[in-house]
Amino acid sequence: MTNKIPPATSPHAPSPPVASPLTHFDQSGQAHMVDVGAKQDTHRIAIAVGTIRMQAATLALISAGNTKKGDVLGIARIAAIMATKRTSDLIPLCHPLALTRVKVDFSIDTSQSSISCTVQAETVGKTGVEMEALTAVQVGLLTIYDMCKAADRGMVMTDVRVLEKHGGKSGDWSAA
Predict the structure, then answer these.
(1) Which long-range contacts (CB under 8 A, 24 or more apart) does 36-43 make?
(2) Where is the catalytic site (predicted)?
(3) d(CA 81, CA 67)
């Protein structure tokens, strides 16, 4: 004889699983890595951007290359590229990708006392590179913060977002 527990009737009982548009949950509502095995390899591109605002004096030091720690933007560029290659180690359930290209650009805006970081990540694969581009932007900005925090602890990182993506089953997308 088996004892079966009757279904919960409490108003606090979990609801039955509902289909979700989110892809990292299975039919039971449990987190899982999405199976991309049946997808076709396609050329995929993602472009992400973010900004760090700082004191004008801090921006002047970076622009002139006069920080005690060296070439802030050069080191931040390398950190951003390295971050794209380690994204699957940092973001749970993110697929490891063989990147074919990573381009990191920094743009200085003296009127806003800010630096923008733009990253273009590319692969030929079964899943997109949005997470790699976003991770690279954030690590690039964090590296600027780390290298300049002794002079300016009030720096603010903001507006990190995907600007566009190309390729894959869902096609192209661009921020409005």
Answers:
(1) 36/95, 36/126, 36/127, 37/126, 39/126, 39/127, 39/168, 39/169, 40/126, 41/124, 41/125, 41/126, 42/124, 42/125, 42/126, 42/167, 42/168, 43/122, 43/123, 43/124, 43/166, 43/167
(2) 146
(3) 22
CATH architecture of 42-174: 2-Layer Sandwich (3.30)
Angle at CA of residue 29, ends 24 and 33, nearest 5°: 25
Q: Quick one: angle between helices 56-64 and 130-148, nearest 10?
A: 100
- What is the per-residue pLDDT across 11-24, written as a single tens digit (0 to 9) for each? 555 554 554 454 55
Domain residue extents for the chain:
42-174
What's the length of the chain? 176
Provide the annotated binding site: 93-95, 131-132
pLDDT single digits (tens) 109-152? 999 999 999 999 999 987 779 999 999 999 999 999 999 999 99
Handedness of CA 3, 4, 5, 6 (dihedral sign): negative
- Per the residue annotation, which of 146, 152, 159, 172 is the catalytic one? 146
| β pairing state of 42-53 and 99-109 | unpaired
Q: CA-CA distance, 144 to 79, in Å (whole number)? A: 10
Annotation marks residue 109 as catalytic: no
